[in-house]
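Q: Hi! New to this. If I give you a protein sequence and the SMILES for adenosine-5'-triphosphate, can you show me the bound structure?
A: Yes, paste them in.
Q: Okay, here:
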Amino acid sequence: MTEAPSNPPGEMAVGRTALRDRDGPAIEVRGLRSAFGDHMVHENLDLTVSRGEILGVVGGSGTGKSVLLNTIIGLRQPDAGTVKVFGQSLRRASKKRWDELERAWGVLFQGGALFSNLTVRENVTAPMFEHTKLSRRDANELADLKISMVGLRPEAGALKPSELSGGMRKRAGLARALALDPELLFLDEPTSGLDPIGAAGFDELIRDLADSLDLTVFMITHDLDSLYEITDRVAVLADGKVVATAPVAELEASDHPWIREYFLGPRGRAARAARSEQRAGGTKS
Ligand SMILES: Nc1ncnc2c1ncn2[C@@H]1O[C@H](COP(=O)(O)OP(=O)(O)OP(=O)(O)O)[C@@H](O)[C@H]1O
Ligand SMILES: [Mg+2]
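A: Thanks. Here is the predicted structure of the protein with adenosine-5'-triphosphate bound:
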């Protein structure tokens, strides 16, 4: 053999970093204030996300869920307060630490945000070229692995986003979010726009990936079925704060008016009924 063997794709230590071995929560937000002019979105917001959990994030439209996500990944500076990811304060992070952090998380933005002029495979390899020195051949091989991990057929790699269905686009976005083997996955409304069967399939995929890849997941969603199906805890945003963080079953007993309306209103009741029916039928493990 004349050429040095390349690492098998599954074994490439692309994104797992020294950050992984630290103790403490995956995300810690303290006293966050976010304002646009005199429009206060967050005021004294605290949130802790434990390692390995799937945290659902809910709140009315415009309560600042996406702004919170953008702040945690450093796309937006807090107007006050601190954000730590894997114990690292974002404000104090050196360039090297930033690079480590960016490799340690993957993001599926609201709406997917794929590069429309690139194929799915090129979308998935883009972060690899940005953060690693992988050869094109290895990156392509790794991208194909990610594409199959999210349940897309291999042919999908050669398609442009406009040639995909909404559900396929979400999966492609997820493949890109997983490109660097992140340990923390951010999802902004991953099932919005999908039909109930597509949404249920996507939920199952997230749960399976989270289990098998040992991920911590921060998932913004309006989808009550997702909350019941896959989250360990749910954080509720209201009045500029996280007003509760608890498993759904505990939130059902909350006396906060928005939480009561959300979980005990008609849609909440339907999601809960579907869940108990499924359990009674033993269709879910
Ligand atoms: N770049 C910006 N400039 C000014 N205001 C902004 C900007 N980004 C967000 N906002 C405002 O911040 C508030 C929170 O927005 P955000 O997108 O976080 O809401 P959301 O909870 O994600 O809502 P949705 O459920 O509809 O996605 C909104 O009132 C929005 O208008
Ligand atoms: Mg949003």
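A: The chain has one domain: 24-281. Let me know if you'd like me to explain how to read the tokens.
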